[in-house]
Design a protein that fits this description.
Elements lengths: L4 H13 L9 E2 L13 E15 L5 E15 L4 H17 L10 E12 L6 E15 L2 E5 L1
Parallel strand pairs: 1-2
Antiparallel strand pairs: 2-3, 3-5, 4-5, 5-6
């Protein structure tokens, strides 16, 4: 049995944003542990919520699903936070726009919001950009591991 489509989508997004000029291979599918200095600049990819509604009723129904995926970019620097955050945004947005159907797993995906924060605690300030994506996909009610 394949993994849940939600996991497949997360993994594909991680693949799509790995190797970008600013963050390189520092891409992690977790939000439990904070980013270590040696992994910056870097990206975290995780799902935050999902809404479903029945599309086709019957013994085996079809669900339309709206998945919220977050891509967080982290930089640690003394200067040029805005420029580095904007570089991360440009690279992630370009990569995501190049695969809006997430390798055929989704019907559509798009950037819904971007939030930028700075934290001056610690030896060097950290900048964090949170890019929230909406991913629309469909599954049968009895097969959450297969996209329709």
């Amino acid at each position: 049995m394949a993994d849940h489509i939600r996991q497949q989508i997360r993994e594909r997004i991680a693949t799509n944003v790995t190797g970008l000029a600013t963050t390189g291979s520092n891409v992690y599918q977790s939000r439990v542990y904070p980013m270590a200095s040696g992994n910056l600049p870097g990206l975290l990819i995780y799902s935050t919520s999902e809404d479903s509604e029945i599309d086709v009723m019957g013994s085996v129904g079809t669900l339309n699903r709206i998945l919220n995926i977050t891509v967080e970019g982290y930089v640690k620097s003394i200067t040029e936070f805005d420029d580095k955050i904007d570089d991360i945004c440009k690279e992630v947005e370009t990569a995501m726009a190049g695969d809006q159907t997430i390798n055929g797993l989704a019907k559509n995906s798009f950037l819904s919001s971007t939030e930028i924060e700075y934290n001056g605690d610690g030896d060097q300030p950290i900048g964090v950009v949170t890019m929230n994506y909406v991913v629309q996909y469909r599954t049968a009610t009895n097969a959450p591991d297969a996209a329709l």
